[in-house]
Amino acid sequence: MAFKRWKNISEIIPEEVERFVNDFNYKEPILKEIEEYASKEKVPILLPSAAVFLKLFLKLVKPKKIFEIGTGIGYSTLVMASVCPDAEILTVDSNLKRLDIAKVFFKKAGLKNIMAVHSDAFHLIESFLVKDEKFDFIFVDSVKSEYPFFNFKIQALLNERGMAVFDNVLFRGYVCGKRYDEKRYSRTVGLLKLFLNQVKEYPNFDAMLLPIGDGFLVLKRKSPQRG
Is the pLDDT of residue 4 over 70? Predict the structure, then answer.
C-alpha cells in the first residue's frame, strides 16, 4: 500500500477518483515539476485532492499572513503562493536538505513573498508567542505524532478570524480503523486519535474533519457572540 504514496495517490480515496480529479484540475508547471521530483526521489508531498481543496479554501479565505509548519520540498508552499500571491508566507522545516531543495523550486517559481526558515518549529513558535505574533492562516504538515503538542500553540498564534489546517490526520486510514503494522505505527495513530479527540473539545474553535487527501482537519476560531 505504501507504494501508492510515491505515485501521489491517496490511500483513503479510490485511486481512479484521485487520478480523475488530478487530471481534471489545472496545475501550475512548477507543481508538476515538483511532483515528478517527489515521485522519483520518494518524497511525500500534498496529495492532489488536498492541493485542490487548499487552493479553493485559500481563495475564499484570502489570508494576508500565512505560517506553514513543514516545508518539505516546497510543494504545499507553492500551492498556497499560487492563489495568495500578495500574502506574506513564512514556512519552517528542520530538514535542511529538503529545505534547500524547496528554495530551488521557490527561485524557479520567481516568487518573492516566501520566507523559508531552517528551525525546529517549536522553537520558532515560542519566539512568535513571546512577540504575540498572529497569523490569518496556519498550515501544518509536519511529524504527525507532534500534532497534539501543537494544538494550543496554534490557537494562540491565530488572529481573531484565523483558521488552521492540519494535513494527514487520518494517516492512510489507520486512524479510522484500517489495519496497520502496530509495532511501527501504534504511537503515531494513538497520538493522532488523541489530537482529534482534543480538538472537538476546544471551546473557542469549530473543528471540521474532511476525507480529503490523507485527511484534513480544519480549525476555525468562533466569532465572538454579541449580546
Answer: no
